[in-house]
Amino acid sequence: GAGVSQTPSNKVTEKGKYVELRCDPISGHTALYWYRQSLGQGPEFLIYFQGTGAADDSGLPNDRFFAVRPEGSVSTLKIQRTERGDSAVYLCASSLTGSAGQETQYFGPGTRLLVL
Amino acid sequence: KQEVTQIPAALSVPEGENLVLNCSFTDSAIYNLQWFRQDPGKGLTSLLLIQSSQREQTSGRLNASLDKSSGRSTLYIAASQPGDSATYLCAVRDNNDMRFGAGTRLTVKP
């Protein structure tokens, strides 16, 4: 596709449920990033994939959060036992090679998650 | 830990004014600094990327400067237009981590 796409655009769930958020990066981009943006704040880094592997997952807040990218393209962010504090916009970005200092990251429109 | 601060948090100007948005960061060991635009309910659009070895970048009416030693960047917008109304975010990259400021919400009044 022309840009990064994310589905669903909105997700409402109940506390304690499991959710999956999907990201389709720009075709050919090997680097993929997940961020979380709370209201009135800038995005917070969660995890970075280089190809199929998670090169840096230091931003994941706890073990309820997990992400995969099994074929090196589409990625899924998984949240178990959701809590109200997980409510935020989850943004995905991709870049061509992930070479630090070299590249622009291209962002998707985000998934708005609301945990009731 | 890198901290990124943007001042002001919000700014309202009449159409046609030139304006400056400020960004400061605490750790000067960065790979690059990037300015983004975010429209309500939308993702981020990259405006300008300044590598750590560069001092400024220009694109159309936008000019971004970087002073790594003092931990500062500015985004200059010339001849502002109502279509420039959005939130502007700066982000610094060190290794895999991109750290964002909270943004400046700009309103340009016709």
Report what the structure shows:
The complex is a heterodimer of chains A (116) and B (110). With 116 residues, chain A is mainly beta. Chain A contains no helices and 11 strands. In chain A, the strands form 2 sheets. In chain A, strands 2, 4, 5, 6, 9, 10 and 11 form a 7-stranded mixed sheet that branches. Chain A has a 4-stranded antiparallel sheet with strand order 1-3-8-7, with no helix packed on it. By secondary structure, chain B is mainly β. The termini of chain B are far apart. At the A-B interface, strand 5 and strand 10 of A face strand 4, strand 5, strand 9 and strand 10 of B.
- Characterize the biggest β-sheet of chain A: 7 strands, mixed
Query: Helical percent range of chain A?
Result: under 10%
Q: Could you give the distance between the termini of chain B?
A: 41 Å
Which runs of chain A of at least 5 residues are low in confidence (pLDDT < 50)? none
* Average pLDDT of chain A: 93
Radius of gyration of chain B, in angstroms, nearest whole number: 13 Å
Please tally the β strands of chain A and state the result: 11
Subunit arrangement of the protein = heterodimer
Apparent shape of chain A: globular
Q: What is the residue-mean pLDDT of chain B, rounded to a whole number?
A: 94
Poorly predicted runs of chain B: none
Main pleated sheet of chain B: 6 strands, mixed
Sheet/helix structural class of chain B: mainly beta
